[in-house]
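During the first year of the project, the team set up a workflow for recording each protein of interest as an amino acid sequence followed immediately by a discrete structure-token representation. This format lets reviewers and collaborators read both layers of information side by side without switching files. As required by the reporting guidelines, we include two representative entries from the current panel. The first entry is reproduced here exactly as it appears in our internal archive.
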Amino acid sequence: MRIAGPLLVALVALLVGLPSALGHTDVVATIPAEGARLASAPAEVRVTYGQPLLSVEAAAVKVEGTSVAGRPRLARADAGTVVIPVVDERTGAHAVSWTVLAADGHALAGTMSFSVRGPAMPAMLRPVSDALLAAGVELRAVASAAA
């Protein structure tokens, strides 16, 4: 029975490590978060995996079909993080997609989305905007009467 104890410990250690050895790495975080609603466009999108990656094969950030992404790269301090620069501050729905090469040689692809709603009109400009709209209505009325 002296062999059974160490054998049991070795078997448990093997079974605990088996899922991570058989499985692929997963995305553990994105910045911005999936579905986030932002007031302004981020400078970059970050996708972090639970394990190091070998390379970024492709990445895109699109707004209404137009690319707003710069050249993607792995983060210098963390080989498990993909960095995709955002080079255009467009508002609207941002669709992000990527393909990376995992340390085990398998290609991993993913998608996420977030939206940029743009800055709200400052409260001090609201009276100016209302006055301009009212002036436009009056001008239209004068033009109609003159015609």
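The second entry, processed by the same pipeline in the following quarter, appears below.
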Amino acid sequence: MENDRPLTLNIRGISMVPLLLEGDRVTFVTSPTLSKGDVVLLRDKGHKEFIVHRYLGDGLFKGDNNPYFDSHELVVLGVLTSLNGRPFHVLKLANMIKAKLSGNYLHHRPKLLRVIWKLPLWILNWLTRRYCILAHQK
């Protein structure tokens, strides 16, 4: 991002469903530090495309809707601050829970167990999205 100015993009893809949906307008700003659970803008060193995934701590990134961690070298460009023109305020506890639920618990598990395990994450993401909308309406 140039001159530390915010960068606004439209979401393509389903890796962060249900928090971020196809066509959502998101804004990112640079941040000197990352907190576990932050939604971040990344770029693969070998490609021009942006990636929006969750930071899980210890240098690990993963889309909420993806079964596996990102395995390539990524550069962090910014942290999500706005969703569809509304400030994106997320409680730290919710972020920590989401990071835990997105972790590697789903690797090598039967598909039904993966679906059941993801339900709380989907509910938390839906509530976060709803909270973002309600907080802006007040």
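For the second entry, the following points were noted during internal review. The chain has one domain: 2-137. Strands lie at 7-10, 25-29, 39-44, 50-57, 60-62, 74-83, 86-87. Both points are flagged for discussion at the upcoming steering committee meeting.
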